[in-house]
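Late entry, written up from scratch paper. The run itself happened at the end of the previous shift, but nothing got recorded in the book at the time, so transcribing now.
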Amino acid sequence: MDNTCIYIQNLRERARIPENGILSQTLQDGEGTKVVLFGFAPGQELSAHTAPFPAIITILKGEAVLKLGSDEHQGVEGTFAYMPPYLEHGIQAKTEVVMLLTMIKSRGAASGS
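Output as recorded:
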């Protein structure tokens, strides 16, 4: 078991936003979870896709359109979105966007099952 602590005081300052494109930084990758910090230039998008595990999107900066299943939602600073496994999802940045993605790879990791 890895007991390494990860502490980042300001995720918005840690994020790198390219002039054109998307940059991602893996902040943590363990048996049960993976946390990735994204920086999007305005107009950039991750096209709709699915994942075999639940995930959480947290918008830390900017404005974006979130595709969650067949619905579109406005994402702004403070937006939280939980996505169950296999839900089609995507994001398009309207402005510079900083997003935290938390993937829950092992559902029983916290409970030990």
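Helices lie at 11-14.
(Scratch paper discarded after transcription.)
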